[in-house]
Amino acid sequence: MLDERREFFVNQIHCMDCMGLFPQIPDGYVSMILTDPPYGISYQNHFTRRQHDVLVGDNGIDYGRFAKESYRILTDNAHAYFFTRFDCYPYHYECLKKAGFQVKNCLVIEKGNIGGIGDLQGSYASNAEWIIFCQKGRRIFNRTMLMLNRCNGSTASKPNKKYKTRFNACWFGEEYPKATYNASWLRKHQIFHPTVKNVELLSWLIQISSLPGELVFDGFIGTGSTALAALINGRNYLGAEISIDYHALAQKRIKEVLEDVRD
Questions:
Q1: CB of 192 within 8 A of CB of 186?
Q2: pLDDT tens digits for range 27-37
Q3: Does 114 have pLDDT greater than 80?
Q4: What is d(CA 224, CA 192) in angstroms, rounded to the nearest whole number?
Q5: Pairing outcome for strands 215-218 and 236-240
Q6: First to last CA, the chain
Q7: What is the pTM of this model?
Q8: Which residues contact 11 (CB under 8 A, 6 or more apart)?
């Protein structure tokens, strides 16, 4: 049955609410979750020349149900990453724990742009994304070649010690990828979405937490960055995007990546 429906589940982005997609996904079917759910803030940036459209569905979701369904579809001994925000973190944390996840860390990743909305004179600028890192069961991190260890020559010369196997919870500085793209990159690529995630960052997380051929799920895939990161790293993807326009943009970006691979 699952083999017959592979075309529905593997390397597909469905233009729909992920809450409608969840019931169609079997228990334990996905190998990793990497997603940025809406926070219920009806985001629209009034401080740029080109205003972003208000995100469809960003008036909030049933996060408790979302957490339970995410836990159900994730295979045992697997990792899940949920973007969040400082004021949403306590509620998201509790929902994920109640669903059964072991919440291991909150990653703090530097943005490509410093936030320019809100109280510009009486509040600190937002220059980081927060990500709740969870496990279902326990899975150890993969050995990668993402970052060299900073250690003495005798230790670094050993193959199993040359590269980092444990990363910091805060990713700032030139050696780490940024969480988002800066405004000039978005203008250059004609991508007008307020929360586009950096494919390089997602690639790092995918390399750390999944293996080639495994299936990465993103229920709020937006312009398709998670799918691109999965493809680039030899993984499969499954996602949902409720906006017709962003769904079309995601498909366009995927097509461009596949054409580059063929070339």
A1: yes
A2: 999 999 999 99
A3: no
A4: 13
A5: parallel
A6: 35
A7: 0.87
A8: 227, 231, 236, 237, 238
